[in-house]
Structures are given as structure tokens and as C-alpha cells.
Specification:
It is built from three helices and nine strands, in the order αββββββαβββα. The protein has about 180 residues and is of the alpha+beta class. The strands form two sheets. Strands 1-2-3-4-7 form a five-stranded antiparallel β-sheet. A four-stranded antiparallel β-sheet has the order 6-5-8-9.
Length: about 180
């Protein structure tokens, strides 16, 4: 009887250990879920955001904020705001953002920074905003992207974007 109870205890402990191990493995390898933030800017005006940190070819960090703004009686728009640390670069707002996937396919997004920075001289800014709406759903899932930011003061800045980030950006297109 004592042996039977001991075997039962060992079996239960092994089963529990296997279950814990399976949970740990699932958490460790589970794909990243979209972490969209929802903000109410004003009554009836909602913003849904995806925030990511991307590194350029020199290792500088850039904040990438893809967002959808919904205003009452207005169309939904999806923009991408890229912000580097002060002194990182002076972005050329007269040029579009170029998005290139690893298969060599290229898209451009127009710079709409004048809407974002109406009260500041743009040439001094290390930030830009681009209209993603026309191209977002053309980006292919599962394929990484490179963003090429035109600058006034140095060579183009390149940011690498993982397929998971592209998928999160596309999730902004889903009905809310």
C-alpha cells in the first residue's frame, strides 16, 4: 500500500512538472501579440497606437509610433511617426519615407510633418510623420522591412522592422 501511494505521488509530481514545463515553453516561444494602445484625445476622438523602438545602422534608437486617429464625421487615417534622439539627424521633410522589404519590393510614404509641426521649423527636427494609409495593406506579412529616412545632414538612415511589427501596424486597419 505504501509503495502504491509513493508511485502515485511520483506520478502526480511528474505530471505537474511536465505541465509547468509546457506552460513555460509556450510562454517563451509564443508569438508577440499586438499591443495596441487606445486613447481618447477628446470626446468622440479616439487614437489607437502601436509603439516600437527601432535601431538604425549606427545603433541609435528611434521611436516608431504607428497610429490610427478616429474623429467624429471624419475618415480614419493611419500615420507613422518616427522620432530620434535630439542631435541624431535632421530629417529631410521634402522627401518621402522609403519602405523596402527583403525581397526588394519598394513603397513610399509621403511626409506629412507640416501637420504635426506647424509651430516649429522642420529642418531642426529629428522627427517626421508619414501617411501609411495608402500602402499599409500592400506590405506583405512575414517579410521584414527596411525604412529609409532621408536626411539633410548625413547619409540616409535605415531602420529595420520585423515582420511582427508590420503585422501589428496592419492590425490598426481592422475595424474598431
Amino acid at each position: 500500500m505504501k509503495m502504491k501511494n509513493t508511485l502515485r505521488f511520483i506520478g502526480s509530481a511528474l505530471l505537474l512538472g511536465m505541465l509547468v514545463l509546457m506552460v513555460i515553453i509556450n510562454v517563451a516561444i509564443a508569438p508577440a501579440q499586438a499591443a495596441l494602445r487606445q486613447l481618447e484625445e477628446a470626446p468622440g476622438q479616439m487614437v489607437y497606437q502601436s509603439r516600437q523602438t527601432l535601431k538604425d545602422q549606427q545603433g541609435n534608437r528611434w521611436q516608431a509610433i504607428a497610429f490610427k486617429r478616429i474623429r467624429p464625421g471624419d475618415t480614419e487615417v493611419i500615420y507613422l511617426r518616427l522620432v530620434g534622439f535630439p542631435g541624431t539627424a535632421e530629417l529631410d521633410h521634402s522627401q518621402p519615407l522609403t519602405l523596402t522589404n527583403s525581397l526588394g519590393k519598394t513603397w513610399t510614404a509621403i511626409d506629412i510633418s507640416q501637420e504635426m509641426f506647424a509651430d516649429k521649423p522642420q529642418a531642426e527636427l529629428n522627427a517626421a510623420e508619414y501617411d501609411l494609409q495608402p500602402i499599409l495593406m500592400q506590405l506583405e506579412l512575414g517579410i521584414p522591412l527596411q525604412l529609409s529616412l532621408p536626411t539633410l545632414d548625413q547619409a540616409e538612415i535605415t531602420l529595420n522592422v520585423s515582420p511582427e511589427v508590420v503585422e501589428e501596424w496592419q492590425s490598426l486597419s481592422e475595424p474598431t
